[in-house]
Amino acid sequence: MELVFGVILGLLILVLLVIAHEFGHAVASLRNGVVVEEFGIGFPPKAWSKKLKNGMILSLNWLPLGGFVKLQGEHDAADKKGDYGSTTFWQKTRILLSGVAVNWVIAAILLTGLAFVGLPKVLPNQFTIPGDTTSISQPVEITNLLKGYPAEAAGLKVGDKIIRFAGQEVPTAERLIELSKQDKGKVVEIVYSRQGVEHSVKVSLKNTNSTVFGAGLGQRELIKSTWSAPIVGVVTTGQFTVVTIQGIGDLIGNLVGGLVSQLNPNQTVRNQASAELKSVGDSVAGPIGILGTVFPAAQQAGLTQIIFLTAIISVSLAVMNILPIPALDGGRWFTMVVYRLLKKKLTKEREERIQQIGFTIIMGLVVLVTFADVAKLF
Questions:
Q1: CA distance 194 to 78
Q2: CA distances (Å), 349 to each of 138, 143, 185, 353, in order?
Q3: What residues pair up with 40 in beta bridges, in sequence order?
Q4: 261 and 176 co-located in one domain
Q5: Which residue range(s) make up the domain with 167?
Q6: How far is the C-alpha of 201 from the C-alpha of 86, rounded, in Å?
Q7: Which of 219, 245, 279 is a domain's end point?
Q8: What is the spatial distance between Cα 120 and Cα 107, in angstroms, rounded to a whole number?
Q9: Cα-based distances in Å from 363 to 61, 233, 325, 352, 360
Q10: Residue 210: half-sphere exposure toward Cβ, Cα within 13 Å
Q11: Cβ 217 vs Cβ 173: under 8 Å
Q12: What is the Cα–Cα distance from 370 to 15, expressed in whole angstroms?
């Protein structure tokens, strides 16, 4: 049931973020004199529609995978009044990048709100203003369970927060490990918190010199600010933007390097290349991976983690859409710039062909990543 709720919650958040992105395009288009023919929530087939006073059609569609904006004359070569194509270069730039800007602003607002109440510290150099920062250590938390070990056998779950172990407080993960080794082979009582409710359970620890409890442990640190929260929110959003871009760059580098190395006659080099390609597959997640694992885990961790994850995904949407890949906002802008620099006319036929190629590549990647996600889940 938790998995189902997590998937539904994740889908809802993703859809809302995409709709907000498309809303940014619609507002920028209207402000720059472009006629918005339709604003769609979800993708066709159409379930319901209504024509508004300004002539725009508002539609609800059956496929809940985001949303879309249909503009009049949505080609660079269109030249009628109200056409997207009839606007200037800078107007087109504002329209194309407005969705990216909305996702980035949403992330900054969410992270600012968290900075007031407690922003998770996940970056080693995460920005703070020392004179207005309070660090809060969360209880020790179970991050993963080893199959067949005492923690799993006792019914503990990922996300449970350990309050007391064998009657003693556990301020750090290191202290819990120390206590578990002291009591190896014994039955101890563990008091833990799950979704804000305290429980207790008896656990029979293994009598070994290695793993006696069988759980991965983590401890979250929160950063709390007052007057500097808006500054912290904006700068942290910038940091996550840079980290996301670096992560994409590393993925591409490992992928290209791995594929090239596979052609090397040296077996050691080919083995290393296989490891690089596997790391690419392990670090990439599509919609199923996000909805099926990340959101359910965040749901167990609480509202703070859900808001934090929403902000990170909003940053990721902004970064992905700004990439110079045809069919994405950045790709459309990049294509427009290239043709202007070459002083060639970007005809409707050329633009459609370029966008179709880009769309086909993206859909192919989505299918591959989806199959990988399903394999990881099962």
A1: 58
A2: 57, 52, 74, 6
A3: 59, 68
A4: no
A5: 139-219
A6: 69
A7: 219
A8: 14
A9: 20, 34, 12, 16, 5
A10: 2
A11: yes
A12: 18
- Identify whether residues 164 and 261 lie together within a single domain: no
User: Helix, strand, coil proportions of the chain in percent (round to 5)?
Assistant: 55, 20, 25
Mean pLDDT per 10-residue section of the chain, whose length is 378 residues = 66 88 96 96 93 93 89 92 95 96 97 95 90 89 88 89 91 89 91 88 88 87 94 96 82 63 55 47 47 53 81 89 89 93 91 88 67 54
Could you tell me if 78 and 29 are in contact, meaning their C-beta atoms sit under 8 angstroms apart?
no
- Please write the tens of the pLDDT for every residue from 103-153: 999 999 999 999 999 999 988 899 999 999 998 888 899 888 888 899 999
- Cβ-proximal residues to 123 (8 Å cutoff; 6+ apart), any chain: 236, 239, 240, 243
Same domain, 176 and 229: no
Q: Cα separation of 170 and 192, whole Å?
A: 11
Overall domain count for the chain: 2
Tokens representing 49 are 């529609």
Domain final position from 202, 219, 236:
219
Q: Concatenated DSSP letters for 191-227?
A: EEEETTEEEEEEEE---SSS-SS-EEEE--EEEE-ST
